[in-house]
Design brief:
Two copies of one chain form a homodimer. With 305 residues, chain A is α/β, with parallel strands linked by helices. The longest helix of chain A has 29 residues. The first copy, chain A, has 14 helices and nine strands. Chain A folds into two domains: 161 residues, Rossmann fold (3-Layer(aba) Sandwich), CATH 3.40.50; 119 residues, N-(1-d-carboxylethyl)-l-norvaline Dehydrogenase, domain 2. In chain A, helix 2 links the parallel strand 2 and strand 3.
């Protein structure tokens, strides 16, 4: 990796902070920007330079990463008058690692190309733990030349790094990932509610169903947390609602009907209505429990109706 | 295991044949019965005695297993005038290893108890391969004494054997298993359709999403088969429709609304309408492709709209 390339990092939330930290540790001169600068203080302690504006960051960086939450923020970061596209130096590589609508990724790439800039869309999966332990799955879209330039950086943050095709394909792949996760969560929560109402010993049920054809990462990792009533966020409900909204909009644009995903989206919206936007996605069990006027977690055995 | 106990086995289809074979191999005197006797010929070659009627089988057995398909058949096998309950000798243990409505399992247990018979409901998961290799997950309901009596037999057929509670609890647990599988399959097929319409390289997408939080047994094992257009049955569509119908009926009886499962059930019914009843459950992709007027498997890349 050419550590003479100066790195700019925009967005130092839970994920971005860990990911950027790996690049600093690898020896890069790193500039950071965050709307709330105090959230970048940990990185400054590790040696990063805090920038007050994107203009300042862009003018001094060779490779610029972004990891911000919602499409409106991504749009502001890239397309604003003081944004990356207007301010980056020719030849810079811009890498968006958040989950952004594929159509916006294509728009960024086209504008960038006309300005002599390279881009990649490179969203990730693996959550805060994956980010911390540099074990993310990174799904990359863009020109292959840009991919080769970005690869050494990705290798510091992730374990599965797959080139998925032209601009937008990284984002499309991430949406496939979110579709799988959301549908599986609906099934997991309905299955647990059924087990509860049938009066089963939930731990024994998980033992029987986890290792066979019904097995999944969510069942093994989130099933036990749902039973304990542990709704700490690995991934926020507010973010999955955003992501599923993007899938549905992109699918509708392609004239693709996805009834299961639409249902999952609606149940997650109901979960926001029940004030669970900042819970983890496994809190979906509340939406289905509410629908059925059931408490969750289940009351001690014997007390169930 | 007390090999002096004579075993009766009713139902020698794909699953039952392998399971019964393990008991013969363990040294049990084994009697077999099947509505179509020719399907029991392999077991007769291994040393089993073919019975022409359930009456004959029941009069000579100490432990009687059943592995038949649909609730109407289970009902006939147990409650018929020439059925197991009327014909079994007092003290016999009756074990139903098919997927039967939990309420019927309870009915069988109650009638049996009044006749001095023991029962277990012990449905399995793991498919034809699991049955052949004695690696089934066996979910057991019934009295604990009966469970202890049945355990040595189960250990010849399965690897994960979990006592789930009183009669019916084995069946309830199996329904939890089917709920998980069905919902996950909807997500898997919708995700693959999205990937196809987005123009992605499907193999690369599977590589990115399989190992992380979206990972599941179905994704790893059936995802590649769906892409290849391999719809050979591991588990028949006709059987999952039956099982999901049981879940929905039991859930409705318990006043439990399961919208995701209801959708999965309807999509599987649509798949039967498209003449896929004898395909494997992964054929669900056809129901969703049909809904969207899309061909499956996808035409060669570049040809997609």
């Amino acid at each position: 990796m050419d550590t003479k390339q100066r790195v700019g990092w925009i967005g130092t939330g839970v994920m971005g902070r860990s990911m950027c930290g790996h690049l600093i540790a690898a020896g890069h001169t790193t500039l950071v920007y965050n709307r709330s600068p105090e959230k970048a203080s940990g990185l400054v302690e590790k040696g990063a330079t805090l920038c007050r504006t994107i203009v300042e960051l862009a003018s001094k960086s060779d490779v610029i990463f972004s990891m911000v939450g919602f499409p409106e923020e991504v749009e502001a970061v890239y397309f604003g008058e003081q944004g990356v596209l207007k301010q980056a130096r020719p030849g810079s590589l811009l890498i968006d690692m958040g989950t952004t609508p594929p159509s916006m990724a294509v728009q960024i790439a086209q504008t960038a190309s006309s300005l002599g800039l390279q881009t990649l869309d490179a969203p990730v999966s693996g959550g805060d733990i994956g980010a911390r332990e540099a074990r993310l799955s990174i799904m990359v879209g863009g020109d292959e030349g840009a991919f080769r330039r970005g690869l050494p950086y990705f290798e510091k943050m992730g374990r599965s790094i797959v080139y998925q095709g032209p601009s937008g394909c990284g984002q499309h792949t991430k949406l496939v990932n979110q579709t799988l996760i959301a549908a599986n969560m609906v099934g997991l929560c309905e299955a647990l509610l059924y087990a509860y109402r049938a009066g089963l010993e939930m731990d024994r049920v998980l033992e029987s169903v986890s290792s066979g054809a019904a097995g999944s990462w969510s069942l093994s990792n989130l099933g036990p947390r749902i039973l304990k009533g542990d709704f700490q966020p690995g991934f926020f409900v507010d973010h999955i609602v955003k992501d599923l909204g993007i899938v549905l909009a992109e699918a509708a644009r392609m004239r693709l009907s996805l009834p299961g995903l639409a249902l999952a989206h609606q149940l997650y919206v109901a979960l926001q209505a029940a004030s669970h936007g900042q819970s983890g996605t496994q809190a979906l069990v509340h939406a289905l429990a509410n629908l059925n006027h059931l408490p969750w977690p289940p009351p001690p055995r014997g007390a169930a109706g």
